[in-house]
Recover the amino acids of this structure.
């Protein structure tokens, strides 16, 4: 059982981690210096979809169990595999981009393969400890990350230039509101809410967790995007592979304080390790539920190997980032619509209703 | 102990052991580059790249109680290469330690290189993680190599700190502020054209240069204390300013200032760019006006002509950033600057206190006239947008497409300057009429 706050912190971590990689750049590529408007728009849509899902969801069980309730074993297996593939795709892109970027910014003399192996081992060990341990560590670490992040945004104030966000609509209203619709994909990790529901206390708590996680993540994403748009003039902001890292390099106060990126790299690494552990655990959890397996822990090693092998498919980091964009486009409609559709169709069916464990 | 616990324990021990090392980058095996200089080579598309790196043993003072000083704290080597990393790669064959750019503070381009364009070098700096975005850039009058060779910090033994102190002064305004990061952002976005400080060296006459050479190895006793190498031939080539703003001061550029010093390098004035190419240079007085107009002026002494036809010096502080008001209808830009000041030096028979409003009005008029002259005589003919008018113009448009269509029209707008100038304090004395 994971508490409400721990559950919320898990969802915040998995959503916000994308913002620490190349996601802010993806936003800028669509709408230019108006990316901060785009993220507000995407957040509102994501919040509306999550709210809609919470209204129709009436069973304290994961989407896989809802599928079984609706269509028996066949549908359960199909949905289980679909959800597993979505999680695998999410994990693989991060598992590829993170070691490559760590090699660029931190460990230039290390092979990216070695970094990836260390990453995989850490993720597997985390998953092995179980969701309670992960959630408690995550809950303890998130405030530290929050403090570093707040200090980071404050230290950037001298570098913010209001001229950088003009013209106010950037590449145009159509880009923000039509092409920008796809940036709802930032919140696609919310699928974990529908997977981890059985680990929560009750359904109404899970619903609150979902909305709260979306609000906090959206606010964080907005702050990061706004800071990026204010700190870097467009089109320079189109070019940086790791926007948050790039901003951390700007900070220097006279001669006694510079290289803030060392703080950032620490927080960044821990958050991504937590992300990876959560994902490995979630993938194993999905497989266990889909195939009604007695034990979950033996799955950790093969799932980790599968994730890392899939992460190795793109030949270069540019391919991985490009692939991430397409994966996001494909998966976000499924992620948001699956709980709504299954929730609607199973609304009047019997099963595990809103009771406490 | 269970096997799994033992495995975690072993993993923890290995991690602790690995964390204590530098993972292949031992500081003792690195030579830290503090400055790079780029001169044109005889070969096309190549540079003569001067690499100046620190000698840590001299900085830490192993040779004497007072630590190292002068040129002993740095070493210079020059290689011919098409770009920074090709040059570093060559130099790594010469220097026993691996050269690291992570503490670099300055990159100097010769004027020839600056006129040809520095976009390629800036692209390298933006792409690699080793160099910092806050590296200072400068244009050397003459050779960048000569400038770096002649840098001999006297009162500061850390060369990186020396460059920081020289190029990031808050209390003078004779050089502009522009880091490598700013240069790249401005050049790539077209938001404004860049300016860079001018670096130069003093020119001693032949006889005195000889005596300089003989004394190079000696410890210097302080800046400006060597009477034998005094005469800077370039000093008289600077023009005397007879305008009311900075009355009777010379409009110096680097190399023209000092007449008596051991450190033969100087920084004064600015080079302005069009895109990534140098378009011209200005002296210290125009640079001061530029700093005022752009909002980089923080505090400095200003000498103005009073009604006695004599000089009054005030300490001026910019208490607010300048405001740019763009009137598209009348095609006019109004720049409003805000200053407060303290009276510092007055002629004995001048009672500024009794007519403070008159003095403030005169000061406003003098700064306004000098600023407008600078805009009309220097900025407009060059076509260089060093004031960043285009970036301010962005506010007038709703999206990028519209802005791109109209962005150049602002360069044809009239520019008016308004100055708010107040005298706040009179120093420790206050004179009354009738004294």
């Amino acid at each position: 059982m994971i508490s409400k706050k721990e559950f919320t912190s898990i969802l915040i971590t998995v959503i916000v981690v994308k913002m620490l990689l190349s996601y802010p750049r993806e936003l800028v590529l669509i709408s230019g210096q108006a990316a901060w408007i785009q993220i507000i728009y995407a957040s509102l849509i994501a919040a509306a979809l999550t709210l809609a899902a919470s209204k129709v969801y009436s069973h304290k069980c994961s989407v896989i169990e809802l599928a079984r309730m609706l269509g028996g074993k066949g549908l359960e297996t199909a949905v289980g595999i679909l959800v597993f593939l979505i999680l695998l795709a999410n994990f693989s892109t991060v598992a590829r981009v993170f070691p490559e970027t760590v090699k660029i910014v931190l460990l230039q003399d290390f092979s990216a393969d070695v970094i990836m192996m260390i990453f995989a081992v850490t993720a597997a060990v985390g998953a092995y400890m179980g969701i309670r341990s992960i959630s408690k560590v995550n809950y303890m670490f998130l405030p530290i990350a929050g403090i570093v992040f707040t200090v980071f945004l404050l230290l950037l104030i001298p570098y913010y230039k209001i001229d950088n966000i003009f013209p106010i609509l950037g590449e145009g209203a159509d880009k923000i509101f039509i092409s920008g619709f796809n940036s709802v994909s930032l919140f696609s990790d919310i699928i974990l809410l529908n997977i981890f529901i059985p680990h929560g206390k009750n359904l109404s708590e899970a619903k609150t967790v979902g909305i709260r996680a979306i609000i906090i993540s959206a606010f964080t994403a907005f702050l990061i995007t706004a800071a990026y748009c204010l700190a870097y003039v467009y089109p320079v902001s189109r070019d940086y592979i790791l926007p948050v890292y790039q901003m951390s390099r700007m900070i220097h106060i006279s001669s006694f304080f510079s290289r803030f990126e060392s703080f950032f790299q620490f927080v960044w690494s821990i958050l991504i390790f937590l992300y990876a552990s959560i994902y490995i655990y979630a993938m194993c959890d999905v497989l266990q539920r889909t195939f009604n397996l007695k034990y979950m822990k033996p799955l950790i090693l093969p799932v980790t190997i599968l994730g890392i092998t899939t992460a190795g498919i793109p030949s270069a980091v540019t391919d991985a980032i490009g692939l991430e964009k397409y994966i996001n486009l494909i998966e976000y409609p499924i992620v948001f619509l699956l709980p709504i559709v299954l929730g609607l169709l199973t609304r009047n069916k019997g099963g595990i209703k809103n009771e406490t464990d | 102990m269970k096997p799994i616990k033992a495995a975690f324990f072993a993993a923890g021990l290995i991690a602790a052991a690995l964390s204590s090392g530098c993972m292949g980058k031992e500081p003792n095996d690195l030579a830290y580059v503090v400055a790079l200089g780029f001169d044109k080579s005889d070969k096309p598309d190549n540079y003569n790249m001067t690499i100046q790196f620190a000698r840590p043993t001299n900085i830490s003072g192993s040779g004497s109680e007072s630590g190292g000083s002068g040129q002993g704290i740095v070493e210079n080597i020059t290689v011919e290469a098409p770009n920074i990393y090709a040059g570093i790669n060559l130099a790594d064959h010469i220097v026993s330690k691996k050269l690291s750019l992570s503490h670099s503070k300055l990159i100097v381009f010769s004027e020839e290189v600056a006129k040809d364009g520095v976009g390629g070098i800036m692209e390298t700096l933006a792409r690699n993680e080793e160099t910092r975005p806050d590296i200072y850039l400068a244009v050397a009058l003459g050779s960048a190599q000569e400038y770096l060779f002649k840098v001999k910090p006297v009162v500061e033994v850390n060369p990186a700190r020396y460059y920081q102190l020289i190029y990031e002064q808050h209390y003078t305004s004779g050089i502009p502020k522009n880091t490598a990061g700013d240069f790249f952002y401005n050049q790539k976005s077209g938001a404004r054209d860049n300016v860079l400080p001018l670096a130069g060296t003093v020119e001693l006459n032949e006889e005195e240069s000889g005596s300089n050479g003989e004394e190079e190895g000696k410890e210097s006793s302080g800046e400006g204390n060597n009477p034998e190498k005094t005469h800077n031939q370039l000093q008289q080539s600077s023009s005397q300013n007879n305008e009311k703003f900075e009355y009777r001061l010379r409009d110096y550029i680097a190399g023209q200032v000092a007449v008596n010093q051991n450190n033969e390098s100087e920084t004064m004035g600015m080079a302005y760019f069009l895109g990534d190419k140098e378009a011209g240079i200005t002296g210290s007085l125009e640079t001061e006006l530029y700093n005022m107009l752009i909002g980089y002026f923080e505090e400095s002494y200003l000498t103005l002509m009073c009604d006695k036809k004599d000089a009054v010096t005030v300490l001026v502080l910019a208490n607010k950033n300048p405001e740019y008001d763009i009137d598209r209808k009348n095609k006019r830009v109004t720049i409003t600057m805000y200053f407060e000041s303290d009276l510092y030096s007055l002629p004995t028979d001048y009672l500024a206190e009794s007519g403070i409003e008159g003095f403030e009005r005169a000061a406003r008029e003098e700064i306004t006239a000098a600023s407008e002259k600078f805009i009309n005589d220097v900025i407009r003919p060059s076509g260089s947008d060093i004031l960043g008018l285009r970036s301010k113009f962005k506010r007038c448009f709703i999206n990028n497409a519209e802005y791109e269509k109209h962005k150049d029209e602002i360069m044809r707008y009239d520019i008016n300057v308004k100055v708010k100038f107040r005298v706040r304090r009179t120093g420790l004395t206050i004179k009354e009429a009738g004294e």
